[in-house]
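Per your request, structure below.
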């Protein structure tokens, strides 16, 4: 099973259909065709209870006691109905009177005879056990695969059930152990810097685990951050004292002594004090430029203040307090706007924070943790679709569990999150959530809340072509609102939205002004990622001006800024689309290179490549198979690739389809609303398509 909760190839029961079960998150079952229909929470509870029993029989009387505090009069018949419906879902092709092979009746009850590889939790356990016997290079991918099986807290919807409590705790402990073993493997491969962010999040969630503290401290030391290592050690000592009333164990005490003595055993080339294998150091130079030592350096002063404030927070706020979790989300939010490393780290830690909140069983706390990540988003294709799916599921789950008297602002933030994270998806839920979030935010008259809601409205404003004027209105309101209330990140977002919209409308002088404003704000507030968008805009300006060689060079330079920028949703396939769009805008042969990385845009590239090389019948077949482009910033550009393929292969159906899609954008510059590329004036495309349709009769 992958993180999506589906897998093919695992069989449950001899001769049964392919069925796999997921309990590392919401409980579910899947076959080769997708999720199985499990009706109602108690039917799902029956399945979950049988999985907890690990192939053993659960007596009917026990099932009844576990399902109801006060069983109804016909509880036995109801359980039998649940079991019958489950059997039908799990083995739909079983002859009516044939015995069940998967969910069997045995003695006084029922058992689920799932194979060992058919339940994600069982596969997770096996993978963690196998990794223990492997060297770091082999253990790391095995542990990554195991941890990827988690979609949320184990048996997520049954957190309050007594029968699930022990198994949930056992799996949570094993998951924590797997995270630590993964960190050991990373350290063993000499990649200490890579281990630090995950371990930092891990100790925040599990402050009583001394092994985790030891690993984090060792990782910091091996990256040349001796001061941070000692500060973290002091934090561990204080946490253990406050949380458990205990002094550090011998491992932490020995590690502290070794660090103070700069013992050779801590060097990666020597055996680790944690007994893990070691490799070359990430940063053997203690005078690494990220740690300036000049006493008058402002960065040293800032670093000292940060350390002192963090130490005070550790002393003052109880280690297990929920306030720590909410503070962590604030830090993650700040990380997301600091650059590539911070953006990637924020994605890694964000879902962990949500899962930690869910473990408290408090939907209002979980809602605050989910909704606190109000990081402005400008690109309409997400960097991590799986993470977005998990966030949306958690938000929907939490929204449904909020008490009636929950603050409307809390509901608004959940809805805005759903609107932002369903970007680029054709589902009515995104636009509906955006409308409701904006309505609530306006009624509450909360500027920060309204800015977040407007970000969701922007993300859902790509349902068709030609909506640049609407987005310009959103951007204008964001700029005015954010400037008035000091919301500088949303002020930058507003300028970037207006840059895109003005480019689509062909108003490049206005777009230039917004690019300059975004640049000034980004420099003043240290927002390095903004420069990536303005550099792509500079390439677009050259493309729109007719400087094809200059634009091609500028596109390649801009694409290089995306390497390592932590934005795969933007980077993947964008350069190739920009280069072909540039040639189409100036009526040049497209020269589609299918050996290059086209990412999600490949289906449109393949149709155009077939048409360009004279394979017209195959091109028409490819055009028939094309979906409508995703509702995002590149919608019109992909429509134009489709139009070019249809023009070259005389595909009347495709031409009529593309004309209807592009018509609302008449008078605009196709694709320029992305702020990164253009395929030329929409009117010119409409004229070419209409002429071709007339010629085809």
């Amino acid at each position: 099973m992958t993180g999506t909760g589906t897998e093919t190839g695992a069989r449950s029961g001899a001769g049964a259909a392919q069925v796999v079960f997921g309990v590392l998150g919401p409980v579910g079952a899947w076959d080769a065709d997708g999720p199985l229909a499990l009706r109602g929470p108690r039917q799902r509870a029956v399945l979950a209870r049988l999985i907890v029993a690990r192939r053993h029989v659960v007596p009917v009387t026990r099932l009844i006691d576990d399902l109801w505090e006060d069983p109804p009069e016909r509880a036995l018949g109801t359980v039998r109905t649940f079991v019958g419906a489950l059997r039908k879902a799990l083995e739909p092709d079983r002859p009516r009177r044939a015995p069940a092979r998967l969910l069997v009746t045995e003695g006084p009850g029922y058992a689920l005879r799932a194979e060992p590889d058919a339940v994600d939790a069982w596969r997770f356990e096996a993978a963690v056990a196998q990794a223990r016997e492997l060297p770091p290079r082999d253990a790391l991918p095995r542990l990554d695969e195991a941890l990827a099986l988690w979609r949320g807290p184990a048996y997520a919807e049954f957190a309050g059930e007594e029968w699930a409590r022990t198994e949930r705790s056992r799996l949570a402990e094993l998951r924590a152990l797997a995270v630590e073993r993964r960190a050991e493997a990373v350290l063993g491969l000499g990649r200490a810097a890579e281990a630090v962010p995950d371990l930092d999040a891990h100790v925040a969630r599990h402050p009583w685990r001394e092994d985790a503290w030891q690993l984090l401290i060792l990782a910091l030391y091996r990256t040349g951050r001796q001061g941070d290592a000692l500060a973290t050690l002091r934090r561990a000592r204080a946490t253990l004292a406050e949380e458990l009333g205990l002094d550090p164990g011998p491992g932490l005490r020995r590690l502290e002594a070794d660090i103070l003595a700069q013992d050779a055993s801590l060097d990666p080339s020597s055996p680790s004090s944690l007994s893990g294998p070691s490799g070359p150091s990430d940063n053997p130079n203690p005078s690494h430029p990220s740690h300036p030592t000049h006493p008058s350096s402002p960065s040293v002063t800032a670093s000292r203040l940060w350390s002192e404030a963090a130490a005070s927070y550790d002393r003052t706020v109880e280690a297990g307090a929920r306030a720590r979790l909410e503070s962590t989300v604030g830090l993650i939010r700040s990380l997301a706007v600091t650059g590539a490393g911070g953006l990637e780290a924020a994605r890694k830690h964000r879902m962990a924070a949500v899962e930690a909140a869910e473990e408290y069983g408090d939907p209002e706390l979980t809602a605050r943790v989910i909704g606190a990540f109000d990081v402005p988003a400008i690109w309409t294709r997400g960097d991590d679709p799986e993470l977005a799916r998990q966030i949306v599921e958690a938000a929907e789950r939490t929204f449904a569990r909020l008490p009636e008297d929950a603050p409307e602002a809390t509901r608004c933030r959940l809805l805005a999150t759903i609107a932002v994270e369903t970007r680029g998806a054709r589902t009515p839920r995104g636009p509906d959530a955006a409308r409701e979030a904006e309505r609530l935010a306006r009624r509450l008259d909360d500027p920060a809340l309204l800015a977040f809601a407007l970000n969701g409205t922007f993300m859902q404003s790509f349902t068709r072509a030609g909506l640049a004027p609407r987005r310009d209105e959103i951007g204008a309101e964001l700029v005015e609102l954010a400037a008035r209330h000091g919301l500088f990140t949303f002020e930058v977002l507003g300028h970037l939205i207006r840059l895109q919209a003005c480019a689509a409308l062909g108003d490049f002088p206005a777009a230039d002004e917004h690019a300059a404003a975004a640049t000034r704000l980004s420099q003043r507030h240290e927002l390095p990622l903004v420069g990536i968008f303005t550099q792509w805009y500079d390439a677009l300006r050259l493309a729109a001006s007719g400087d094809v060689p200059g634009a091609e060079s500028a596109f390649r330079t801009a694409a290089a800024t995306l390497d390592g920028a932590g934005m795969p949703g933007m980077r993947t396939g964008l350069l190739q689309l920009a280069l072909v769009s540039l040639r189409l805008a100036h009526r040049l042969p497209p020269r589609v290179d299918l050996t290059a990385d086209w990412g999600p845009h490949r289906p449109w590239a393949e149709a155009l490549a077939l048409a360009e090389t004279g394979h017209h019948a195959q091109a028409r077949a490819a055009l028939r198979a094309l979906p409508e482009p995703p509702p995002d910033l590149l919608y019109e550009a992909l429509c134009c690739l489709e139009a070019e393929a249809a023009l070259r292969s005389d595909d009347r159906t495709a031409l009529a389809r593309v004309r209807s899609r592009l018509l609302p954008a008449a008078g605009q510059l196709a694709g320029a609303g992305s702020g990164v590329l253009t395929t030329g004036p929409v009117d010119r495309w409409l004229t070419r398509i209409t002429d071709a349709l007339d010629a085809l009769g």
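The CA atoms of residues 41 and 516 lie 54 Å apart.

Regards,
D.
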